[in-house]
Design goal:
Elements lengths: L5 E2 L12 E2 L6 H4 L6 E2 L1 E4 L2 E7 L10 E9 L4 E8 L6 E5 L5 E2 L8 E5 L2 E7 L1 E9 L8 E13 L1 E13 L13 H10 L9 E6 L3 E7 L7 E5 L12 E5 L2 E7 L10 E8 L4 E10 L2
Parallel strand pairs: 15-21
Antiparallel strand pairs: 1-14, 2-4, 3-14, 4-5, 5-6, 6-12, 7-11, 8-13, 9-12, 10-11, 13-14, 15-16, 16-19, 17-20, 18-19, 20-21
């Protein structure tokens, strides 16, 4: 099936199912002696997506991490929770055994991705979007996680993808089992998730007729930083952000979006420093009159 290609800037539900189901091989002899996890992956437009877990087994009552592992062809990208000037973030609909609960998708610190006059917020090459799975205290059989995943991948044009992924894990009681072969991907993703800003920081956002001015006092001089708003239509994404070092922090000046209909009470988002470390923050907005 040929993927449906749509122009950049148009949004909509993914309409194409470009799926190549991986062939999963099981050796019955080995299954008698070792628990085996089944990972389902799918080829999509300009990349692949896999449903993986950080553990090989499920322990009743003990949360673990699953995740959507996207790998994109060079030059293609998918989107952050706020996609920026165009696009849509990945979405997942879970079908889980009774008593299981899935948390929200977790979002690593994104990149600013320039494409002509647009700026997108997203991920290139590869990214793991983790999800915390909490099992009940009583489980009677092997665990099957089903995830219906939709996403949009872009480079000049955008191509929608969809995959129905399945991950089956055996049960284990007692001590934890060994980590899975993909555990290192989860360790990397966890390190890239932005924690809440330290309580010692002081953050405010001034708003005049044309600009937001974000002041972040971290307690030390910061040389450069970029801000990613969690909500759309607050800043002009494609406009340069002017970062000015302060003795005890940094100030970022950003043009206000022409599409902003209401002044927000707080400017919420992720601030990313030169090191790549990001932090979630919410700055009270002080609007000039």
């Amino acid at each position: 099936m040929t993927a449906l290609e749509i122009p950049r800037g148009l949004r909509g539900d993914p309409q194409c199912r470009c799926i190549r189901l991986d062939i999963l091989l099981f050796l019955s002899f080995l299954c008698l002696f070792a628990a085996t996890s089944r990972v389902a992956g799918a080829g999509g437009p300009h990349g692949t997506v896999d449903l993986i877990a950080d553990q090989n087994v499920v322990r009743p009552g003990h949360p673990f991490w699953a995740g959507l592992h996207f790998q994109m062809e060079e030059g293609w990208h998918i989107y952050w929770t706020n996609p920026g000037d165009s696009g849509e973030p990945p979405r997942v609909k879970w079908s889980l055994p009774p008593g299981f609960q899935a948390g929200p998708l977790e979002w690593p610190v994104p990149q600013r991705i320039a494409d002509h006059s647009l700026i997108d917020y997203g991920y290139q090459n590869e990214v793991l979007l983790p999800v915390k799975i909490t099992p009940p205290v009583k489980i009677s059989s092997d665990v099957q996680l089903n995830a219906a995943v939709s996403w949009l991948v872009c480079r000049e044009i955008c191509v929608p993808g969809h995959a129905d992924l399945v991950l089956t894990l055996p049960i284990r009681t007692g001590r934890p089992g060994p980590p899975s072969s993909t555990y290192s991907l989860f360790a990397k993703a966890q390190a890239e998730l932005p924690p809440p800003a330290p309580k010692s920081w002081k953050v405010t956002a001034d708003l005049d007729e044309h600009h937001f001015v974000l002041n972040v006092l971290t307690g030390k001089r910061e040389t450069t930083a970029t801000f990613f708003p969690l909500e759309p239509n607050q800043i002009e994404n494609a406009a340069p952000q002017k970062a000015s070092p302060l003795a005890h922090g940094i100030r970022i000046e950003m043009p206000k979006s022409d599409q902003m209909l209401k002044v927000p009470l707080r400017l919420r988002g992720v601030i990313k420093f030169a090191s790549g470390q990001g932090y979630l923050l919410g700055a009270p907005v002080i609007a000039s009159k």
